[in-house]
Design goal:
The chain contains 14 helices and 15 strands. It is mainly α. The protein starts with a helix and ends with a helix. The structure holds 2-acetamido-2-deoxy-beta-D-glucopyranose (3 copies). The site of one 2-acetamido-2-deoxy-beta-D-glucopyranose (NAG) has 6 residues, from loops.
């Protein structure tokens, strides 16, 4: 794929590619706008909850209270009672009791106590930290000092270790020398090229002509440079590209639309289109219970989606803040809240719960690369397979 990208841009198909990219991003924006509208619609119902096994809705109880008794009429107000001393509810809810306040662990200090609307806030003790990128099972000791030859760049905080680096003085000094050398070399090269293009053919015309030509040379150089730069960008998405090309080898990405072998740019435009990725639909392998396969996939999601993103992810899956609080209550320090969150989502979705919804939500919160990884893992594990693309175009 990487070489395909370069090839196509070398052959001057860039304008075509760009046009396609513009068209496909416009399509993606359109799709996203539809999704937002749907979300807005579902938000309207957030002030009410449905009483189980009955046709009617009741107003949610405000934060800091719980539902003591459901309302007795459509859209009525339930009886809400305030949380006891060791309980809290952060958002309007239909909880039958308040959530239990945390007590801070031994390696933490209490930043602020629990009250009716806010759980206890705990942070690591002085000199220790927990990175927000991982579940905090225990606070780790910060480095006490920087290694010799390095200086402190950022101090130890409850959320980050002491950060050390080379002293800034020598850093910028050596950098300056390198930059000066590069600039000088570039200037010499430019002069050489100018001389080659213009002055080797002195018969070509007068000085005005020469001026125009050197203008052309500069233009040419700028063009070459931007082309190199684009080539470099193309290699950045290395891993994803490799995934894509692997899929292509397996024949999982047949080019639709072109009757015979498509041009290179055809394939490139298709696979670099963000909405195309979401069209690569996974289906459970036949002969196994799809519900079990879906639940099994939760492990892969919990392992691969960064822990710090699990709430954002839950919101992208249309879960409410209260659902997330409930999930979190279970256990803050393992991957358990993540599983709870996915369980809740599955219960809400019922039979329509699909691994593709989980993957799409990742794309929506800009974790598309992780979604790609997860899909290929699920396929490798043999629990899911790609649906042939033609079907999804249906
Ligand atoms: C209850 O509330 C919903 C949403 O706010 C509204 O559509 C519906 O008409 C209300 N029903 C009654 C009986 O007030
Ligand atoms: C709970 O504490 C937070 C800050 O710690 C504060 O903003 C909030 O108003 C408090 N709520 C109540 C009900 O006291
Ligand atoms: C932590 O250290 C800082 C400065 O080193 C100090 O101001 C603060 O009081 C300490 N906090 C605790 C709980 O020891």
């Amino acid at each position: 794929m990487r070489s395909a990208l370069r090839l196509s841009s070398r052959r001057g198909c860039l304008p075509l590619l760009l046009a396609k990219a513009v068209l496909s991003t416009a399509a993606a924006v359109e799709v996203r706008r539809d999704r937002v509208d749907l979300l807005e619609l579902s938000r309207k119902g957030e002030d009410f909850y449905q009483v189980q096994d009955s046709g009617w809705y009741c107003r949610l109880c405000p934060a800091g209270t719980y539902v003591a008794e459901h309302c007795k009429e459509q859209n009525g107000s339930s009886t809400c009672l305030p949380c006891e001393a060791d309980g809290y509810v952060e958002y309007p809810s239909h909880f039958g009791r308040c959530l239990r306040c945390w007590t801070c662990r031994e390696d933490q200090v209490e930043l602020s106590p629990c009250n009716a609307t806010r759980n206890t806030q705990c942070v690591c003790k002085n000199g220790t930290f927990c990175s927000p990128d991982h579940p905090c099972e225990m606070c780790q000791k910060c480095q006490s000092r920087c290694p010799s030859g390095q200086v402190k760049i950022a101090p130890c905080t409850p959320h980050s270790d002491l950060l050390c680096g080379p002293p800034t003085g020598s850093f910028s000094g050596s950098y300056m020398i390198v930059i000066v050398i590069i600039v000088a070399l570039a200037a010499v090269l430019l002069l050489l090229l100018l001389w080659k293009r213009c002055c080797r053919h002195p018969a070509a015309g007068d000085s005005r002509d020469l001026g125009r030509k050197s203008g052309n040379v500069v233009h040419y150089l700028v063009l070459q440079l931007t082309r190199c730069w684009r080539g470099g960008l193309g290699t950045r998405d290395n891993i994803r590209n490799e995934h894509l090309s692997r899929d292509q080898e397996r024949g999982l990405l047949p080019a639709v639309g072109a009757p015979s072998a498509p041009g290179l740019e055809e394939v490139v435009a298709r696979t670099s289109d963000p909405s195309a990725k979401t069209q690569k639909i996974l289906v459970p392998v036949p002969g196994e219970d799809p519900v079990i396969l879906l639940r099994r996939s939760f492990h892969v999601f919990a392992r691969d989606v960064p822990f710090k993103d699990w709430k954002r992810y839950g919101r992208a899956l249309d879960l409410l803040e209260n659902d997330l609080a409930l999930a979190e209550m279970n256990d803050k320090y393992s991957q358990e809240p993540f599983f709870q969150m996915l369980n809740m989502w599955q219960n809400k979705q019922g039979m329509s719960a699909s691994v593709n919804t989980l993957l799409e939500a990742l794309h929506r919160i800009d974790l598309g690369g992780i979604a790609e990884d997860i899909s290929s893992k699920l396929v490798q594990q043999g629990s899911f397979q790609y649906q042939p693309l033609k079907l999804s175009y249906g």
